[in-house]
Give the backbone structure.
Amino acid sequence: MSISRRSVRILGVASASAALALGFAGNALACNISEFSAEATCDGTNGVITVTDKDASGTPAVITVFLENNGADTKQVGKPTEVKGSAQGVTVSFAEDWQPNATYRVHVKAGNQVDKDITPNLTTPSKACETESPSPSPSEASPTPSATPSTPAESDTPTPSASESSSTAPATTTDNAPSPAAGDSNLAETGANSNTGMIAGIAGALVVVGGGAVYFGMRRRGASNGS
């Protein structure tokens, strides 16, 4: 049974179509550098560089991160890390205390399919991760009172000495009680001394003499009036 030219032509078109379909399917499942992305983020107060792999084929890929300075590698961040991507995306993180506006080169090696850098290079944000403010220690928060009380300031008014106190005390009693010298002079003026009896006797004699003189004077006056 011979095959007509028309049948051969039909088979050729079908084969080409199948090969083209297989080619598209292979390319769709192949790992591509465009399926990788990187960003600099903060995990609390710590800096992190995160690489995301959205390769639906799940081809194992090794990610290596380098800090760049003027187009040259300054240091390698961490160690090369393997990741298997998915359509939803699989991430891998590198701890790095990155500085604002720093540049990092992220390299991807996935078998024989990919051996390239993610372009463009990663540039960190202009603001660094916030640092925690130190909590005050208990001694700083509330000062501990001193065990020894502070010495009070000396009073401006001086404390009277013992000699001054003893000298001012007799002055207070002088106002209420006369001194012995003042008592002697007062007794002399009022006659309350040893001459009081003699003066009283002389006064009594003078009274008697005076009374007799008055008596005799009155009798003489009466005798003269009767003659």
